[in-house]
Amino acid sequence: MANTQAPPERRNRRPEIQPEEKQFDERTLHIDRVARVVKGGRRFRFRALVVVGDKKHKVGIGTAKGADVTAAVTKATEVAKKSFVTVSLYKGTLPHDIEYKVSGAHILLKPASPGTGLIAGGVVRSILEVAGVKNALSKSLGSSNKTNTAYATIAALQSLVPADKWVTAASRKAPAKTTSQKPKAPAAAKPATKKTTKAKA
């Protein structure tokens, strides 16, 4: 009599490897081919500009060169992770207006109300996204060089003043000084002395 039972399913001995969630958001902003003139001709390499952020107040940029694109991006990513800066945010946007200039790049950043989104383009938008900024306005007033624009944006974000350190009219009024010493008792009044005048003879 033939065995009609189905063969037991083979168990997969190798455990399923789940892909690790990336802690940082890595984005390649620009890749350029550079050349160096040597005795035998030109030697071509690649230069990569990378931004890395955790979308929680930390962001960094890095640039590096490599023999191919992959090597350049890998080196730039390691440089960016070593140059993190902390961004001060206020309710998902920037705490105040900021303007910064690096070389020929001139960047202007402004806070925006909730629901506005990121009104920015190119390099500035990518940096603000990985930094965790949800609403902001920006304008590039100078050179369009992506490297200088990236460094100007990072410098502007780094120079933001947190909201708890703002100097307002209320904070300028110093509180009254309180002393724990007991007040001194008033000195006892001296009895008044009558002046006697001798009558002239």
Strand content: 25-35%
Structural class label: alpha+beta
Strand ordering within the main sheet: 1-2-3-4
Rg measurement, Å: 35 Å
Reported by name, the CATH topology of the domain at 25-162 is Ribosomal Protein S5, domain 2
The helix count comes to 4
Give the CATH level 1 class of the domain at 25-162: Alpha Beta
Order of helices and strands: EEEHEEEEHEHH
How many beta-strand segments? 8
Q: Compute the separation of the termini in Å.
A: 166 Å
Instruction: State the helical fraction.
Output: 10-25%
Mean pLDDT: 80
How would you describe this structure to a colleague?
There is one protein chain. 19% of the residues lie in helices and 28% in strands. By secondary structure, the chain is α+β, with helices and mostly antiparallel strands. It has a domain at 25-162: 2-Layer Sandwich (Ribosomal Protein S5, domain 2). The strands form two sheets. A four-stranded antiparallel sheet has the order 1-2-3-4, with helices on both faces. A four-stranded mixed sheet has the order 5-6-8-7, with helices on one face. The longest helix is centred in the middle third of the chain and has 13 residues, at 69-81. The model has no long low-confidence stretch (mean pLDDT 80).
